[in-house]
């Protein structure tokens, strides 16, 4: 029997993660770090295509990877149109939307383009899995206080869904029978209400919910308006204050939770207050999502890089354990989640969805 081999490509802002798996076994995994000055020369993300493709081709050659043996390529999903959860074939319509940036500019938009460039040349199918654009929200959750500003589903869907798959498998429960609250806690924070395995409500990690290491989360709206019209900041500067320079960065000058915890251990009272406020807001958001599920919650799953913080977890557990048992899945390997999505299709457990 020929073993299934999956090539995984995950472009980030300044690096591209690549990995080769044989079934579930990792053969080789690397993070290709791109030269910052070289990236600055490009006016748009899409213009980085050749640079990143060439770097990946060099990596393939250096590791003696025979592309004729690859069963599938799977890439991180970009900012496409709203889609249901699942594994999608990267088709021509998706490629066009990635080139145009219909959902915005992000390095992940390059994943499908690079994957297809390699796949087309070597006749390999290319898939993507649970992009940020996954939208399973109920209509009642979309309404905001302004008709012009509906709430939109954008979340860390890849890791959230991977946690749902994992919990269902470990507890021998069908996903469609699962109600969970999943809190992905990293550079951005997504807290999702899972009903019957679907993300029926979630805060937009760029604009709402708890503040995070580098994002503001929800803000007092009238004060935001005042700040925008104060004359102190440009349009781009305001966007950067909200996503990238908000949250812990704004308060403490760092987005590294480990550094903040060291400061706390050394007696820094401000660092302690800000860190505890972040945990407080995460716990409060978990309570909001538990209300969406009317308290019918099988478990609260805490995941992402911040789930390694014992201090943070203890505060959240203290505030939320009355709702449901806590399950810890610290970290969250996007590469393995992407691999598993491709393997489910290759093993005929799932049928690939068609983007249109």
UniProtKB/TrEMBL annotation:
<dbReference type="InterPro" id="IPR011245">
    <property type="entry name" value="Butyrate_kin"/>
</dbReference>
<dbReference type="InterPro" id="IPR000890">
    <property type="entry name" value="Aliphatic_acid_kin_short-chain"/>
</dbReference>
<dbReference type="InterPro" id="IPR043129">
    <property type="entry name" value="ATPase_NBD"/>
</dbReference>
<keyword id="KW-0418">Kinase</keyword>
<dbReference type="GO" id="GO:0047761">
    <property type="term" value="F:butyrate kinase activity"/>
</dbReference>
<dbReference type="GO" id="GO:0008776">
    <property type="term" value="F:acetate kinase activity"/>
</dbReference>
<keyword id="KW-0808">Transferase</keyword>
<keyword id="KW-0963">Cytoplasm</keyword>
<keyword id="KW-0067">ATP-binding</keyword>
<keyword id="KW-0547">Nucleotide-binding</keyword>
<dbReference type="GO" id="GO:0005737">
    <property type="term" value="C:cytoplasm"/>
</dbReference>
<dbReference type="InterPro" id="IPR023865">
    <property type="entry name" value="Aliphatic_acid_kinase_CS"/>
</dbReference>
<dbReference type="GO" id="GO:0006083">
    <property type="term" value="P:acetate metabolic process"/>
</dbReference>
<protein>
    <recommendedName>
        <fullName>Probable butyrate kinase</fullName>
        <ecNumber>2.7.2.7</ecNumber>
    </recommendedName>
</protein>
<dbReference type="Pfam" id="PF00871">
    <property type="entry name" value="Acetate_kinase"/>
</dbReference>
<dbReference type="GO" id="GO:0005524">
    <property type="term" value="F:ATP binding"/>
</dbReference>
<comment type="similarity">
    <text>Belongs to the acetokinase family.</text>
</comment>
């Amino acid at each position: 029997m020929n073993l299934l081999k999956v090539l995984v490509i995950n472009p980030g802002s300044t690096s591209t993660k690549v990995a080769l798996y044989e079934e579930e076994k990792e053969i080789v995994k690397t993070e290709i770090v791109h030269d910052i000055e070289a990236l600055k020369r490009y006016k748009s993300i899409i213009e980085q295509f050749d640079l990143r493709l060439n770097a990946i081709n060099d990596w393939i050659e250096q590791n003696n990877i025979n592309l004729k043996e690859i069963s599938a390529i799977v890439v991180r999903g970009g900012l496409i149109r709203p889609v249901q959860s699942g594994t999608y074939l990267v088709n021509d319509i998706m490629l066009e939307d990635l080139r145009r940036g219909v959902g915005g500019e992000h390095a992940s938009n390059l994943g499908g383009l690079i994957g297809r460039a390699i796949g087309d040349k070597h006749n390999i199918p290319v898939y993507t899995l649970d992009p940020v654009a996954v939208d399973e929200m109920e209509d009642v959750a979309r309404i905001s206080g302004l008709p012009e500003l509906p709430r939109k589903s954008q979340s860390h869907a890849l890791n959230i869904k991977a946690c749902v798959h994992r919990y269902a498998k470990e507890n021998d429960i069908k996903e469609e029978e699962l109600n969970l609250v999943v809190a992905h806690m990293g550079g951005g924070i997504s807290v999702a209400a899972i009903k019957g395995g679907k993300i029926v409500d979630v805060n937009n990690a760029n604009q709402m919910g708890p503040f995070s290491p580098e994002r503001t989360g929800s803000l007092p709206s009238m004060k935001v308006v005042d700040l925008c019209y104060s004359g102190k900041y440009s349009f781009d500067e305001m966007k950067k204050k909200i996503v990238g320079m908000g949250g812990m960065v704004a308060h403490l000058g760092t987005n590294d939770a480990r550094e903040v915890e060291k400061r706390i251990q050394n007696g820094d009272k401000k660092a302690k207050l800000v860190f505890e406020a972040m945990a407080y807001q995460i716990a409060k958001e978990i309570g909001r999502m538990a209300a969406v599920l009317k308290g019918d919650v099988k478990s609260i799953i805490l995941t992402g890089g911040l789930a390694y913080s014992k201090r943070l977890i203890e505060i959240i557990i203290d505030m939320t354990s009355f709702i449901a048992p806590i399950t810890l899945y610290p970290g969250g390997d996007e590469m393995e989640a992407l691999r598993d999505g491709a393997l489910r299709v290759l093993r005929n457990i799932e049928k690939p969805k068609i983007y249109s």
